[in-house]
């Protein structure tokens, strides 16, 4: 799994964007099919895909799996305020909780934004207690996700990059 600063991902050019758009439309497309549809040599497509993968451009496949399908219909975003010298330990503690999907460092009043999933309200309570029990956590604020209005998407940005 990729970890690091938000700015350590390699940039892409218009050809990379076209390749990613084609993959977005058909995630199971073969290298040969991609090369034919894009008018690129097979080796070029293969090399670009390898570079995009190793450069952190592509998220892991698991990002496509919906938590609801695994029995976690309740989602929440938890802001966490931590003792500043404990940020690494708190992050490691959060990573040990299976229901924690993502942890992002923030600027502002809270230090971390934690995306969690739960089976129901009682399960969310249990998870909240686990988060609060991590040494270095000072305060949490939990916000339930009630509805998804816009799915995670990259297509509009890829189209813009492909048109450059």
Strand order of the largest sheet: 2-3-1-4
| Count of distinct structural domains | 2
CATH topology of the largest domain: Alpha-Beta Plaits
Say what oligomer this is: single chain
How many whole angstroms does the radius of gyration measure? 19 Å
| Helix count from the secondary structure assignment | 6
Strand proportion: 15-25%
Unreliable spans: none
Q: Quick one: CATH superfamily of the largest domain?
A: Lrp/AsnC effector binding domain/regulation of amino acid metabolism (RAM) domain
Sheet with the most strands? 4 strands, antiparallel
Number of strands: 4
Secondary structural class: alpha+beta
Write down the overall mean pLDDT: 92
CATH architecture level-2 label of the largest domain: 2-Layer Sandwich
Helix content: 25-40%
**End-to-end C-alpha gap:** 30 Å
Run of helices and strands:
HHHEHEEHEH
Mass-distribution shape: elongated
Indicate the CATH class of the largest domain.
Alpha Beta
How does this structure look, described?
Helix 1 (14-25) runs antiparallel to helix 6 and helix 2 packs across helix 3. Helix content is 38%, strand content 19%. It contains six helices and four strands; from the N terminus they run αααβαββαβα. The chain has a four-stranded antiparallel beta sheet. It has helices spanning 14-25, 31-38, 42-54, 87-95, 121-132, 155-162, and strands spanning 74-82, 100-105, 112-118, 137-145. It has two domains: 14-62, Winged helix-like DNA-binding domain superfamily/Winged helix DNA-binding domain (Arc Repressor Mutant, subunit A), CATH 1.10.10; 72-145, 2-Layer Sandwich (Alpha-Beta Plaits). It is of the alpha+beta class. The mean pLDDT is 92. It comes from Klenkia soli. One of its GO terms (cellular component) is cytosol. Pfam families: AsnC_trans_reg, HTH_AsnC-type. One of its GO terms (molecular function) is sequence-specific DNA binding.
